[in-house]
Fold this protein.
Amino acid sequence: MAASFRPDIQGLRALAVGGVVAYHFGLTALPGGFAGVDIFFVISGWLITTHLMQEIGETGRLDLWRFYARRARRLLPAALFVILVTLAAGYFILAPQEQALYSRGAMFASAYAINLWLLRWSFDYFAADATSNPFIHFWSLSVEEQFYLAWPALLLLAAWLRPGRRTAAAVVGVTGLASFAACQWLTSAAPAWAFYFSPLRAWEFAAGGLATLVPMALLQHRIWLRAALGWLGLALIATAYLLLSEDLPFPGWYALLPVAGTVLVLLSGVGGPQSNRRTGWQALGPAAALSLPPLQWIGTLSYSLYLWHWPVIVYAGMLAPELSVPQRLGCGVLALALSVLTYHLIEDPARRGAWMAVGARAFPKAIPGAKPLRAFPGLVLVPALMLTGTGVAVAYANAHLATRNIGPEQRGIEQAVERPSIARA
């Protein structure tokens, strides 16, 4: 029941991950590249709402097991692999007390709850200290996973109240407005809450969801209008990348730039061809530009690239605190190479179910009568989670034992590492 593939959305993913990577790699020309995360949030709201509403409309219910199994199959294998490799690399790079701290970070990252861990310490995402934490970028993935947990219930509530897209749009709209209002208030009153707490980011997902629920009759046959809206949306995204900075209160009102821009680009692709061939006004729309092969390639790798780029730059910064431009470029190439390998060896096979076929052949009677998709969590995800948990536990135990050998003169360092950046709370 997957929605039709849209190349323009794949291109949007490329712009989103490109902005985040450029910002983290210190490209001063794009000081607002961190807003790429907000683009991902809106895209997720659009796609998940489209999928769930289609299933509710066709069957009157939601197969939540199937939904969560698909999400797990799509996201967990690559994420857990990157966590394990990052922990293993940290054994050779980090000091023992740092290993102990970041093993806890890995634990929360693997549970998709690191945003709550960072929120507990009022961790400043824009602080210089953040560059020493190889798992901090999992905060956005945690917010997204928590959205996946809550959103089906919200749409089921709307269907229970009154079936139909209008009721769903009203429920999503009210939820989004409440989240937006709270986010604006807390951006100044409690910045860490506005930044990390999932309910205060829900309005960004709701914006994407609401966009797919509103009537499309006005746009369906007005290709020129869709093209104009799309280019306006790209202009808003470019403005966010060029003008936002870590000195401005964020998310707050400023997050409207990437959110509104993404919504407009998504709307501009409604009713367009599901291929890269366009004629007339369609050829002048942003979908044609977003469908260019380089953007499609980066968009395909966007998840793996997002997972890898931050551990690479963090560890490189530890080995060479003042990275030169060539060194940063080398880090980018390394992150891209790791992304290609991870996508082709782990992410894509898991998404297509190749691992399920292997599991079914290896354990044909492990789950009698179970369909392949339903057998997947038991055959793949449970061992993967056990492996990750074991890796985290071993890394933490080894690091904790090593810290016991630190002399009294080093205890100040140990205590400082124990609470990174929380002095900025």
Remarks:
- The CA atoms of residues 14 and 299 lie 4 Å apart.
